[in-house]
Design a protein that fits this description.
Helices cover 9% and strands 44% of the residues. By secondary structure, the chain is mainly beta. Strands 3, 5, 6, 10, 14, 18, 22, 23 and 25 form a 9-stranded parallel sheet that branches. It has an 8-stranded parallel sheet with strand order 30-33-35-38-43-48-52-56, with no helix packed on it. Strand 58, helix 6 (511-514) and strand 59 (523-525) form a beta-alpha-beta unit.
Length: 611
Amino acid sequence: MMERKIIIGLVLFVEVLGVFSGVSVSDVIKGVDRNIVSGEEPTDNTVIWIYNVYDLQNMSKNLAGHYALANDINASATKTWNGGNGFVPIGSLTSSFSGVFDGKGHKITNLYINRPTRYGVGLFGCTSLGSTVENVGLVNVTVRGRFDVGGLVGRNDGVVNNSYVSGNVSGANTVGGLVGYNIGTVRNSYATCNVSGGFRVGGLVGDNYNVGTVRNSHYDIDKVVINGGHHLTIGGLFDHQYNDWLSHGLHLNISDYSSTLIPAGGYYLINSVQGLKDLLGFADMNYKFRLAANLSLSSEPGLCIPYFAGEFDGNNHTISNLKINMSFASKVGLIGHNKGTVKNVGVVDVDVSGGNEVGGLVGYNLETVNNCYATGDVSGSYQVGGLVGYNDHQGGVSNCYVTGNVSGGGDYVGGLVGVNEGTVSISHVAGNVSGANNIGGLVGYNIGTVRNSYATGNVSGSYQVGGFVGLSVAGGVRYTYATARVTGISHVGGLIGYNNGGTTIASFWDINTTGQTTSAGGTGKTTDEMMNKTTFTSAGWDFTNIWNIWDGRTYPFFKWEDVKAVPLEPLNLRARLGDRYVNFTWEAPADNGGLPIIKYRIYRGVSSGKE
């Protein structure tokens, strides 16, 4: 009988050791596991209560469980676990946490995780779709990993709600105070961590993937220290507003900001950079904002609005000197992700650099951009546009223009829009565009509708390069034209580089100025024909409501553009011979509107005279 009891005892001891993966044997022997249901397989509607750090680690045994904190937990002991590697994150890339964790408003202090070679590092390493982590605070954490590192969750595909983190979080890439890489939803949460990493580094979230959502969640831009080459500002509030937000239970009252967000006629007027900062606290709400003055961001590099869901009316004012350097981030622009209306604003002298979905004004557009323009330089890797990086199938861009240069290290680059799935109309580009593949003067990759638009900037790339659209797939292009030089290796066209199911109607390119006699869509015309109104009226162009032209002198332009008649001859033309150059000077009449004299070419020749 005694022998049987000993055998049973040994079996139970081995099972307990198996449950506490990553916890020292001595800790288990000391009897510190006080969770009366630890190790039990939960049944439906069964909550497993967590009383201590060992119960917390024990969650790795059942990643689909429904857990709740019974009290605050001091996790100081984790600093000595596993030879100094500390706590083992709950869930991994190959086996994510899929259950529910409810902190019940309790906090976990002094958690230590040191996993510098691991992907997916945090209290929860990886969470899957359908999981929930909520109502918990992590205080004074030390979390170190390699990729996808966050204080609470390394890689989130579920829901993180009503939670916060303070302490230090570090990694190589994709590092955030709360969440490293977010594919799921983060709401009503905040972080006050010092965060460091190589790139994709954020005070709240390191990288928010296209389908990821962040709502009413922030970090303190003024207080949180972020070290890394490429900072993300998603979810940031400036110090005074951040403190207000915390002290009012993660809630802000816009009426408290009446000095910078001035109520007037259903709008909140912004006449200072501080007002633009204060807008951040209300950007995901359905408020209407209106600029009351021109603003310069020269003293605020990196200031942007990561997500916007209201109405932003520039009131024909400008925002100048926007400077953003987020070379490994997605959804980059003055407004990163637009789910509202942006209208009547110009962004001037921009210097915007991002990864994917990069635009001078909007990175990713889900709704409306109207009567806007951008000047300056915009660069990125993929899906880069001078105004909008990616125009979603629900998005619309109209009455807009770009005069800056746009470049991409990769594919899908357009002078106005990088990728268009929605609608682009009555817009034009006068800047140069360059990239690798699927490069267009107005749109790089089109699967939507583009109509009544034109491009006059030089376009260069490798494959699928067009003066107007690089690659047209199942979309429609109509009443458009292109005039500037187009160069590439293969599938290069004066108007369309490559067509794969798209339609092109009543559209043209200048065979003289583009250097291209072929195109995957449209009709090639000489310069004289492109300046002949009949070319376009015979194709059904609307010169009553949309277009205008100085017949024989200009290409078509929009009625809202202030274009004066170009003289047939320059006035007082003079030539002066210099050292290996000839200097030409001339005068333009007062009604020229500042336009260059066109339709003249300089030919190499020999003169017998002295001048």
